[in-house]
Q: What sequence folds into this?
């Protein structure tokens, strides 16, 4: 019980973000004509907040499966970089737990896991599971509320952007080394200007990682 209590304390800020975001998604999905079952199914099996918001528009426009798969890869490609830093930490987990940890890795879960000094396997798994449950609860609640209360959902998609801004500010304040922040900001801004909003993300991530790897190698060699 003490581990569960600690996990709830650690993930409570995520809950405060996931539940309102999930409500926004559930309302948008219901507004597009997909009810409670679809909200629960997508939250359970996709569990990718930004991609789920994009999916609302894709479902409405009857986009092909190939396009959906490609867009999903591009939108979620940042998780490749998250996962690389957690390979050793997750390697010794049983196969099924390891697969779930890979599936349930989100920006917020990564932020919590990467900032933890202790290596408690149960705690790491519970963090991923609770965050997933928060998201499911929010999406289902949003779908229910949309059916009960008429609501104008215009602008709800901005909720995901607001959450990312909060995460960045928290990480900036929690760490003394701000070089990764400025690297990501400058690379993202440069690629946005050069490549445009539709193609800059993956290139900006690769460039940022390359710079950080080179910097880390120089630091270790000296």
A:
């Amino acid at each position: 019980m003490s581990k569960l209590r600690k996990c709830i304390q650690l993930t409570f800020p995520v809950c405060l973000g996931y539940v309102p975001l999930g409500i926004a998604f559930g309302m948008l999905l219901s507004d597009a004509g997909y009810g409670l079952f679809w909200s629960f199914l997508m939250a359970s099996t996709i569990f990718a907040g930004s991609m789920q918001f994009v999916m609302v528009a894709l479902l409405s426009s009857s986009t092909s499966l190939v396009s959906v798969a490609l867009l999903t890869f591009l939108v979620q490609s940042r998780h490749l970089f998250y996962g690389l830093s957690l390979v050793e930490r997750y390697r010794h987990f049983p196969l099924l737990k390891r697969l779930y940890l890979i599936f349930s890795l989100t920006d917020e879960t990564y932020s919590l896991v990467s900032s933890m000094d202790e290596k408690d396997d149960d705690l790491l798994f519970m963090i991923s599971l609770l965050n997933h449950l928060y998201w499911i609860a929010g999406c289902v609640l949003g779908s229910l509320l949309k059916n009960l209360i008429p609501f104008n959902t215009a602008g709800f998609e901005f909720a995901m952007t607001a959450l990312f801004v909060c995460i960045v500010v928290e990480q900036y304040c929690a760490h003394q080394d701000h070089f990764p922040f400025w690297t990501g900001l400058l690379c993202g801004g440069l690629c946005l200007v050069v490549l445009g909003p539709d193609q800059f993300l993956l290139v900006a991530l690769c460039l940022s990682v390359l710079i950080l790897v080179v910097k880390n190698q120089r630091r270790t060699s000296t």
Q: What stands out?
A: Residues 2-175 form one domain.
